[in-house]
Amino acid sequence: MGFSKELSVGNRVLDCEHKKLHGIISEITSAIKAREVAALLQGFEQLENCLSAYFVVEEKIAQAVGFDFKQHHVAHQDLMYKFQRLKAELADNILGLSKHEEENYICLLYRHLKLHILFDSAPSQKIGLRRLKMCNMGQMPRY
Predict the structure, then answer these.
(1) Of 2, 36, 67, 112, which residue is least crowded by CB atoms under 10 Å?
(2) Does any domain span residue 59?
(3) For the ranges 34-38, 84-88, 101-105, 112-116, which has the lowest average pLDDT?
């Protein structure tokens, strides 16, 4: 899955960070498909490090535009927790995954990032609300 223009938040710095995160998830999905535990763990470590750096960048941008970051900080913690939980589940079960389970995990990885970009990214709040309405009307663009 490639990074879609529909996921652009209109900020070059954040869009670049989002593309980086998407690329790391692509590497993790390759490790899942190849059943490579070491590559999987390395990918998740890279994802966690990149997320931490991304959260700092996003917070600075949010503060610069006067965005209340308290609630957003919770969204960051939640996203990190979701990825850490997936990492633990996959590390324990990667060798025994069925094709269906593999596809579900890959879908979850991309979904967590996509939802964060569309609905939690500070500068993209208005874009996210518009897309939420589209989703409710069955018009959500495919990822």
Answers:
(1) 2
(2) yes
(3) 112-116
Q: Which two tokens stand for residue 110?
A: 């991309």
* CATH classification of the domain holding 81: 1.20.120
For residue 95, being part of any structural domain is answered with: yes
The answer as to whether 87 is a domain residue is yes
User: According to DSSP H, which parts of the chain are helical?
Assistant: 12-34, 37-64, 70-93, 99-115, 125-136
Task: Indicate whether this model's pTM tops 0.85.
Answer: no
Can you tell me the distance from the alpha carbon of 15 to that of 106, in angstroms, rounded to the nearest whole number? 21
Which residues, other chains included, contact 111 with Cβ-Cβ below 8 Å and sequence gap of 6+? none
What's the pLDDT score for residue 122?
52
